[in-house]
Each structure stands twice: as structure tokens, then as C-alpha cells.
Specification:
Layout (H helix, E strand, L loop, with lengths): L1 E3 L6 E3 L10 E6 L6 E6 L20 E3 L10 E3 L5 E2 L3 H6 L5 H13 L1
Antiparallel strand pairs: 1-2, 3-4, 5-6, 6-7
Length: 112
């Protein structure tokens, strides 16, 4: 991460060896002006409440995940993150192979 030196204002790359999640104070030396300075590394968590109608008797908004290998794809709700296996109808609609179909196709490619 790059920040500006508090003395000369030049960009300085700050490196953290190990961060344990609490506010920690580190010491560094500016490669431009040679002065020592300290910086504090901190970790924060933000919360952003959103409506999830599916948790209140509404319908889930399921979308196909983009998982690889393709046979591992699932349907995930964009509101609550619930996921489930694809139905056979969805598997055909989205052209998602079964595990057996996927392995057969990839084994054939390797043997060619």
C-alpha cells in the first residue's frame, strides 16, 4: 500500500509483515527524506442493511453461479445468498453438465 510521508509528502510503500486484526502501530523510514515515522494499521467491519423480501414470504431471486468445474454450479439468491442445486430443468436450460458428463468430456480431450 502506498501513502505519503508525513514529513516530505513523497509516496512511500508501506509493508506489513503480519496483521492480527487489531490496531497496530508500525515504524518505517522514508526512502526519500530519511526520516522515521509511524503508521497505524487497522481493520474495520461495515454493515449495510438491505431488504431481503425472500426472508419475508417473498420469492428468492436465484441466479446461476459461475463455478468451475461447471458441474459444480449452483443457484444462489441475490438477496439472501441461499444456494441450492440446479433442477434438471435448470441444468438443461443453462447447459450445465452432470459430473459424469463433464469428466467424460475432459477425459476424452486428454486422450486426444
Amino acid at each position: 500500500m502506498f501513502e505519503r510521508c508525513p514529513y516530505c509528502g513523497e509516496k512511500v510503500e508501506l509493508e506489513i509483515d503480519e496483521f492480527v486484526g487489531e490496531d497496530e502501530v508500525y515504524q518505517d523510514t522514508c526512502p526519500h527524506c530519511g526520516k522515521n515515522f509511524i503508521f497505524t494499521a487497522s481493520f474495520s467491519i461495515d454493515y449495510h442493511p438491505e431488504k431481503a423480501d425472500c426472508l419475508n414470504d417473498g420469492k428468492h431471486n436465484f441466479e446461476l453461479t459461475h463455478t468451475y468445474p461447471e458441474f459444480m454450479r449452483r443457484m444462489r439468491c441475490t438477496m439472501c445468498d441461499e444456494d441450492r442445486k440446479l433442477t434438471e430443468e435448470e441444468r438443461k436450460l443453462y447447459n450445465v453438465p452432470t459430473a459424469e458428463e463433464w469428466y467424460k468430456k475432459h477425459n476424452e480431450k486428454e486422450q486426444s
